[in-house]
Amino acid sequence: MGARAAPRRAWRAGGWVEGDRALPEEVAVAFTYDGVSHAVMMATPDDLRDFGIGFSLTEGILEDASEVESLEVVSLPTGIDLRFWLRADRGDALAARRRRMAGPVGCGMCGLETLSQAQRAVPRVGQGARFTPQEVAAALEALPPAQQLHAETRAVHAAAFWHPALGLAALREDVGRHNAMDKLAGALAARALRPADGMVLMTSRISVELVQKAAMMGVAVLAGVSAPTVLALQVAETAGITVVGIARRDGFEVFTHPWRIEEA
């Protein structure tokens, strides 16, 4: 469902080659809570229940997945609607939030009404697990073989969770890196895996939005194959998150809270 073949004409080795190319799907996904539309995201239509729960957790709509009484994935001609019905107390809290702030969305910083919303307060994470450089390398080595949709399309991001006892315990892919992170959050919640017990890996730069979502999840170590932004590091420092960047086979760089990465 996440990819579809599209005909194309390719120039290869000095000549034209006819054939198909697998491309990622991208559809509009709406989030509706207790009958009220909340946000619409463009996303890869895989792992949508994980996406729905994870987005709701990382955006502070839910405190726990148990607050969802039901979730229906409804396919429509114009896209997909994730229809949530929340426990009464959580529904009341969301209604109060709507009265304070209209139209929040989770695709980066779009749709925010004030500068203060871009600098939203996030919780400080706990101590979390510590890792050796060799474990960081092992986690990164496990990532590419598990990226099935990317291997097919070369056009999606991945968010993964590596656990010292379980190895690569979960991986989710999407055209949007924020969506991939939300899908991972939902997958971990479904399996009752504590994010602080492992490290989260991203196949992208570490932006401030990813750090904010990581803090909401309780992630203690966040690693990306590219560099972080300055604002991301400022938020990570305050939230107590260890940020690892430029994470490649030949090494990596630790930018915040380096005490979680230590020699054996």
TrEMBL record:
| Highest taxon in the source lineage | Bacteria
This protein's record includes keyword Cytoplasm: yes
Location relative to the cell:
Cytoplasm
Please verify whether the record's keywords include Ubl conjugation.
no
List the active-site residues: 107 (cysteine persulfide intermediate)
Which keywords belong to this entry?
Cytoplasm, Molybdenum cofactor biosynthesis
Q: Per its UniProt record, what PANTHER family does this chain match?
A: FORMATE DEHYDROGENASE, SULFUR CARRIER PROTEIN FDHD
Spell out the NCBIfam families in the cross-references: fdhD_narQ
Biological role: Required for formate dehydrogenase (FDH) activity. Acts as a sulfur carrier protein that transfers sulfur from IscS to the molybdenum cofactor prior to its insertion into FDH.
Sequence similarity: Belongs to the FdhD family.
Please give the name of this protein.
Sulfur carrier protein FdhD
Please tell me the species this chain comes from.
Roseomonas haemaphysalidis
